[in-house]
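Section handout 9: paired folding examples.
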Amino acid sequence: MAGSPDHKTDDGDTGDTMVRFQSYLHGGTSSLLSTLPTVLVFPVYKTIFRQQIHNTPVCQAVRQLWKEGPVKLYRGVAPPLLMRTLNGTLLFGLQDTLLHQLAPSAQNVRPAVALPALAGLGAGLVEAAVFTPFERVQNVLQNGQNDRRLPSLRSVLVTLKVQRVSDGFYRGFFPIAARNALGSSLYFGLKGPVCVVVAGQGLSPVASSFVSGTLTSMAISLALYPLSVLVANMQAQVGGEANGVAASWRALWKSRHGSVALLYRGGSLIILRSCITWGVTTAIYDMQQKRSC
């Protein structure tokens, strides 16, 4: 009898560990399944990138990609595919782990979205630390101006490796950390309440999750789009003068002639990409979580 409480506690700990593991597994699975839309919309993403870097209208960006040909169209697709799967595994799993670590000491925290948002903030910071090198490589590969000097993934990796960490793989880390932390915090804080509101309109659970993920990601993408533009411009070049965040922002704002409209060039396309990928990811993740309960 004396050992019964300990036995129950061990079973509870094992159960909690399995629940945490499932969050990582479901996050990775949902992101892996959403890689098909990622591949399909990669030309859209690359069009956005060209607009962010060269400040060109969408028609001119499309003509650039068409002239380069189909082979170069998918240059740089490998990092986002790998990053997408690993990102979902870490983001969803770590947020769930942090949420359950915070819950016992914050039982009276209000509003209810505060804890998921706080856990999302922590997960976003870790995500930035892990995936900034992936984004750096991706942006270098997607910049057509690097094709001749850095023709392959290996050449990019070798070149970045010999540079200082802050100029090489972790160029643009601080705006990425701000974007990912804020984005993850808003996503995990809002998607639940939005899903409840949408479900109240009579939609199925899967449809509610999809719409929730879509609406939430749309709002986040619009709000944080300038940070994505800043990151793309900071990371696209290799070598040369490495300006800090403030100097890079001033140069970007000057290149956009102080126009918010020009700064948001390509924003409509990134909304489309976010709607597809995060809508699908949210729906698959929530469906898996409900089935495992």
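Moving on to protein 2 of 2.
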Amino acid sequence: MKKILFPLVVCFALLCNTAYAVDAKLNKTEWTLQSLSGWNAQSPAKLPQPATLAFSGDNVSGNDGCNLFNGIYTQTAKPNSLRIPTDKMMSTMMACMGGADKLSRMYLQALNRTTGYQLNNNILTLKDARGRKLATFNKPATTLPGTNWQVMDYHNGQQGIVSSINTERMRMTFSKDGGVTGNAGCNRFFGTYTHNPRNNSIAISQLGATKMFCQQPEDVMQEEALFLKALTSAKTYRRSGASLELSNAQGIHVVGLRLK
């Protein structure tokens, strides 16, 4: 069954009137959760929706393994102090099942218990008031060449962002020699790409495809055409570990992908 997800814009109210000094060691950094105290299941980084954490100014945001969140972090004069109060956070309200729901709750609890942090060889460790390790993070990979992706959604240019049984069939590979190949749902496609990691610009061009006709799944040919059109509209990219987002010249999300 096709799902059309309309872009959600959440306006965050002023959470606190106090001005906090920005921590230069944390500012403008992004992290992917690697381990979580009390979590004994599959590595958090290998779950379909890895948990993340990002710092920008005095703002903290990320994905808890289920929902996106946004809030503030605070510090004191004590070196490497850090508080991430979850009661001051705003988040999306998706319902998740099983491991994702459990990880989400445990992760947010760990953030709320954090009173300090440690940075060592690009590994971020959050600690509680007794100095015990709550969670560890690595910096996510940002490179594009030599990566393989599963398409999660695309913008159809009309109603919004589409995720369906057809996107589950879509794949995409960025080769190291500037070629892009994949499956658009029915046909295989091929073309070229250029990108600039300094400003995250990207151009996907010279797209061609095989000429098969598929009747199933429903609407696969229509979705294939819209997906390929969305690809060629991409002007910027943002990779954060296992996630890749392509956006158009207006900054609108056009394709979302997950690392295979």
